[in-house]
Amino acid sequence: MRGTVFFAAAAALLAAQPALAETLTVRLDQNTAVRLSAPARDVVIGNPNIADVNLLDARHLVVLGKAYGVTNLLVMDAAGRTILDRQVVVGSPDASMSYYRGGEARAYACTERCERVGGSGESSAAASGEAAAPAPTP
């Protein structure tokens, strides 16, 4: 009986939480439209150096990829409840690659230059002390 009550309480708590399972992928210097499940009052982007967001109307917004990296997007309704909580990944419009070394995976987005995709919001190459290599010219 005790296990059934605990399971029911845990299921109710999980159902009340906004979904963070999905990642919103945005290409550098391009927009991605998002349709909201409820009218929004407040929209917050974690790192405005990586992505920008514009609310078109109460149920539609557009996210612009400004720099390579990872940030988050929060949208709240008039009562302050979170209606959208997504991780935003800004990547290359053309190509990307992954590099594995010593059990660690590193992701790079490549156009004219290869940039390491990181979560801190600053240039990944600067953060790790690595120099970003220019892509070969045809």
How large is the count of helical segments? 2
Give a quick account of the main beta sheet: strands, pairing sense, barrel closure: 4 strands, mixed
| Molecular shape | elongated
Mean pLDDT: 74
- Ends: how far apart? 69 Å
How large is the radius of gyration? 19 Å
Strand content: over 45%
How many strand segments?
10
Structural class: mainly beta
Residue ranges: pLDDT <50 for 5 or more in a row?
5-21, 119-138
Q: What string, H for helix and E for strand, traces the elements in order?
A: HEEEEEEEEEEH
Largest sheet: spatial strand order: 1-7-6-3
Determine the fraction of residues in helical runs and give it as a percent range: 10-25%
Q: What would you say this structure looks like, in words?
A:
The structure is a single chain. The chain has 138 residues and is mainly β. 14% of the residues lie in helices and 46% in strands. It is built from 2 helices and 10 strands. The protein has helices at 2-16, 124-128; strands at 23-27, 31-35, 42-45, 51-57, 60-65, 69-76, 82-91, 95-101, 104-110, 114-117. The strands form 3 sheets. A 4-stranded mixed beta sheet has the order 1-7-6-3, with no helix packed on it. The chain has a 3-stranded antiparallel beta sheet with strand order 2-5-4, with no helix packed on it.
Please supply descriptive tags for the structure shown above:
138 residues, mainly beta, four-stranded mixed sheet, three-stranded antiparallel sheet, 2 helices, 10 strands, disordered C terminus
Describe how the helices and strands are arranged:
Layout (H helix, E strand, L loop, with lengths): L1 H15 L6 E5 L3 E5 L6 E4 L5 E7 L2 E6 L3 E8 L5 E10 L3 E7 L2 E7 L3 E4 L6 H5 L10
Parallel strand pairs: 1-7
Antiparallel strand pairs: 2-5, 3-6, 4-5, 6-7, 8-9, 9-10
